[in-house]
Amino acid sequence: MMGKEVEDYVDDLVLKSKNRGSHQDVLRKVLKRCRLYGLKMNPKKCAFGVSSCKFLGFQVHQRGIDVDPEKTRAINSLAPPRNPKELKSFMGRLSYIQRFILGLAAMMNVFTPLLKKGKPYVWSKECQEASSKCNN
């Protein structure tokens, strides 16, 4: 069941199925197992029979996985990092969605010198261009 019909992460579950009938079968199995082990669900966090949902910051649907548009908007609306700490935070946000950005590691190479101790932090035009490429 795990991996084939159910994806889990910590205390979150997503059930996968080809059609409504098989979805109901999978749901029955999962609910039966939850009852068997005394697991409870938060009704406010449950959505049954949907063809698309947000899961771990991604939009999961029948065709696959996409970045949650809200995450993309949040990254695009960030002001340029003003110091190494903000740059690390920015790079962390990009790393979270790196599988959707072709060549991200190469684009982020321009930021590496800004993280070296003892070097002045100067957000250059080159950094801004790389940041813009990463955000698109």
Automatic annotation (TrEMBL):
Start and end residues of each Reverse transcriptase domain: 1-60
InterPro entries the record matches: DNA/RNA_pol_sf (IPR043502), Retrovirus_Pol_polyprotein (IPR050951), Rev_trsase/Diguanyl_cyclase (IPR043128), RT_dom (IPR000477)
Name of the protein in question: Reverse transcriptase domain-containing protein
SUPFAM superfamilies for this protein: DNA/RNA polymerases
Pfam families: RVT_1 (PF00078)
PROSITE patterns referenced in this protein's UniProt entry, alphabetically: RT_POL
